Fold:
Amino acid sequence: MYRGRGSGPRGPRPAGPRGYGPPPLPPDMIYKSFDYLESKHLFQRVTSEIDDSDLSKAILEKNQQLAPSPEELAAIQEQVTKFTSIVDNLVVSPDPEVDVEEMRIVGSFKKGTILAGHKTADIVLIIKHLPTKEDIDKIMKLLNEKMGALQSDKKKKAEVKENEQGFTYKFNGVSLNVLVTTLPGNTKETIDPEKHVKLEHLKNSLAAIRHARWFEENAFQSSIRVIVRIYKDFKRRIPFFANVNPWTIDLLAHHAAVANTTGTQLTVPQVFRRSLQLLSAGILLPGSASICDPCEPGFVKAHSFMSYEDQDSLACGAQTLLRALAHGGYKEILGIPGARTVTFDSATVFNGIIVTPSKFAYEKPSGDQQPNGS
Structure:
């Protein structure tokens, strides 16, 4: 990883969108970030193996706090089941106003990585033609009416709100985030931005289906879901992680748990430590070979959506957390009640060792146009 201050980001400079930013990188400048697990044979240990028993206990206890209760899951499932039954009936016996092809449950509820208190299920509703804003309004009103007929408490009224991607249905504290899209082949048709749902939203909803399917088929290790929840909690507590999207977190957790040539089955603490090591070494920095998005054609990097500032701050924050972890600061990192908060603007002492935060390497150049570096 390249360090120091200057006008550019950490690592080799990436290619920006056409017309903006630096030129494309030559193939020999795309680097593979350092991975301690893959290079372990090069470093002779001078101390005994790390005892992760306390860290393991802390992570699992934190995961228990972050996981929703059975009552929360049951409440969400109840609304999802009712919604599913309505859509199934619309597929079998189509309504003249609504041309539904199918629906898919996606997002953290489907993946099993939902956090406590977040009583929301994401649903993709696929219709047979390019959806218009008028279509969303019709679907929302029809489903609201039919859902109301299935609710046991007739006195309570649901809250429905339309948005650019679809609509939200909220009843008794549970939200259904309904994303309206179309069949993949229809996205090649001419889209009127004033009339239809934006192409970006249509593609994102279809991508959510691919993400949920891939995660269900590949994230079979329980440690992956534990680490995903930990990082989602980071998003809420640590500013450096705020702009990392959930799909990138899924891919990072899976990569840290599974991607190794040694065939080693890693424990939860090892996956957690390795994920911080990978971020610190620049796996999501400009020029990195990164993690390939398995749900997109070609080679699309997991961090391609992130700006230079976001990539730099993420690596910077991860380096500070990794130093704290190396000196026993796991309670502070995990946000265990009663523990101090890890500071990123001044030095902190852990077990007599001074941990100094990393400094940002990227300085925003003058000019209005900023590329998203990958």
Summary: The first helix runs from residue 53 to 66. The chain has a mean pLDDT of 88. The first strand starts at residue 100 and ends at 106. The chain has ten helices and seven strands.
